[in-house]
Known about the structure:
The protein has 249 residues and is an alpha/beta fold. It has one domain (2-245): Aldolase class I (TIM Barrel), CATH 3.20.20. The chain is 39% helix and 16% strand. The chain has helices at residues 19-31, 49-56, 81-86, 97-101, 107-119, 132-136, 140-151, 179-196, 199-204, 218-222, 240-245, and strands at 7-12, 38-43, 61-64, 91-94, 123-128, 161-165, 207-210, 229-232. The radius of gyration is 17 Å and the shape is globular. It binds 1,3-dihydroxyacetonephosphate.
Amino acid sequence: MASQRKFFVGGNWKMNGNKQSIDEIVKFLKAGPLSENTEVVVSPPSLYLEYVQQSLGGSVGVAAQNCYKVPKGAFTGEISPAMIKDVGCQWVILGHSERRNVFEESDELIGQKVAHALSEGLKVIACIGEKLEEREAGKTEEVIFKQMLAIVPNVKDWSQVVIAYEPVWAIGTGKTASPEQAQEVHQSLRAWIAKNVAPDVAAAVRILYGGSVNGGNCKDLGSKPDIDGFLVGGASLKPEFVQIVNARS
Length: 249
Ligand code: 13P
């Protein structure tokens, strides 16, 4: 049976870009054409959220790359879901491996952020993934299921969440998981969700793959039954992002 899950492609720009390069990205996004069968969301640095939201004019969703766990207050340097919504954006990425590993965000903090973002009406791209030494030690499932356990109790409405499986060893390295490697993890993750959340949630939730996705490998990855889209880093800054959006078309 063909999946009912709408293909989803996110572009995580990370800490890249300026108004000039953003204008160029907006231009190729508007020119597209972007498949109507794909939900597209781009994630600029927080400083540019409103600029990108206004430039795109609603044709593509916009996500913050992070947020804090309370609405406002004395938290220098942080932004809240309320602020992200106030500038017209609908999404936030939480638990990205760079937040976990460079900024030492814990599973617990990520869970609290997920709960607060959802309670404020933002949709969440929740990221999980193992490091190379964890994969080599045969601990991939143990690691990602533990990360999932910190997220699951904080979600009431799974229609507001997509999961991004991003093996840390594949991020920014040019070393993509093979379609078979990614499919294997996605399938076991979906089975875990069926058992630990609910079968209907497992059937409906979109599980994205992230890690060195590009115009050349997106079709093979996107043909796997449990890969429902991508979270793209480097290639989301380039015109080939359009090809990735259209990987299933
Ligand atoms: P790359 O596509 O640059 O490997 O980054 C993946 C990623 O971290 C997306 O969130």
